[in-house]
Amino acid sequence: MNAQDHGAPRHHDVIIIGGGQAGLSMSWNLKQAGIDHLVLEKHRVGHAWRSERWDTFCLVTPNWQCTLPGYPYQGDDPYGFMKKEEIVAYLDGFVASFDPPVREGVTVTKLWRDGQLWRIAASDGEYSAGQVVVAVGGYHIPVVPRAAERLPADIVQIHSSQYLNPQSLPAGEVLVVGTGQSGCQIAEDLHLAGRRVHLGVGDAPRVARTYRGKDVVEWLDKMKYYDLPVERHPLGTGVREKTNHYVTGRDGGRDIDLRKFALEGMQLYGRFDALEGDVAQFGPGLQRFLDDADAVSESIKDSIDKFIAANGIDAPAEARYVPVWQPSPQADAGASLDLRASNISAVVWCIGFRTDFSWIAEPIFDGRGYPGHERGVTAAAGLYFLGLPWQYTWGSGRFSGIARDAQHLFEHICALRRRAGETGLSRAA
């Protein structure tokens, strides 16, 4: 499985770069069809789930949405939320169910076209392929602001992908910057452990966990929201730039209400702006950020109410959310945090990732480095992307929608093989 043979390029009909749920889903389709292929994985299959999630991490979508091809969720808690170790076990079970041809510990450094073939330079030599599926997702380079360079050396700073648990940080108070899903859940993890948390709030939206008798995800599924293609979304492809709604599946699932955290002692600030000496500066707008997040959550409830009424569904009434805390005018106008005076011992940067496809030598990218594609099919014959956020629908890249996207690309792969005159089964990978 992991032989490291060098020499002439090793050829496969299809090579998949990336061994997460996206690459493995494509491998499942190809193996069912007997198509020669190989998966190249930089680390170990499912690496991000194993090594880039904190200890109490869990899914924010119900287990019933886990529908990898040929391998739906098989546990006894479909409305629960798998924890980190359960997610890894689910993925490992998927791998065991069909034994994909994978080479782990292989880093791809360059992909380019060579005549009718694609060539791949990797840490264990070169490969060639008739078709290539890039399945490395869209989260590659952790974003840390340049201001971080000015933090005092004795203050620990990590990215959200490096956070493990409250005990892994030194004693003292913690500054968490960013309120996407990771930032809010890490702030909650620290808060529940009794750590004093300072949270730099951004413009991420939130969503309620349940409403009118069902998980909001179940309502949205019934409303076919998860089938909405990106071109029909009100924001169009711009939705790919939006931060995910924050909510949690922890302890059976609940809302994340930053106002409630504030009542309990968490210190909320506006967006992190700068660092001047030992003082962190935060911009104005905390009130607006909180109000806008609530407004998004309430607008989703509005759409659920309309769906219930239009379909004559018997669902219990539920009172709407009432804010439990408001920031002071002084805090809303902008604030500063003296790191020394507040005994800040650690900073956790939760402001996302950048993509990095610089290793692909093919002119298919826009000015921001995003690949041009239509449902993962690029203008370069035989080159595909799989697992990008909102590649086709909300579920693209997630356990809920990756099977559909992989099936779509599989059909394109087969069509191109037919046009190239390939028939019958290829040699085994």
TrEMBL record:
Organism's domain of life?
A: Bacteria
Checking InterPro entries in the record gives: Auxin_biosynth/cation_transpt, CHP04046_FMN-dependent, FAD/NAD-bd_sf
Pfam families, per database record? Pyr_redox_3
Name the chain's protein. Answer: MSMEG_0569 family flavin-dependent oxidoreductase
Keywords attached to this entry: Oxidoreductase
Q: What is the lineage of its organism?
A: Bacteria, Pseudomonadati, Pseudomonadota, Betaproteobacteria, Burkholderiales
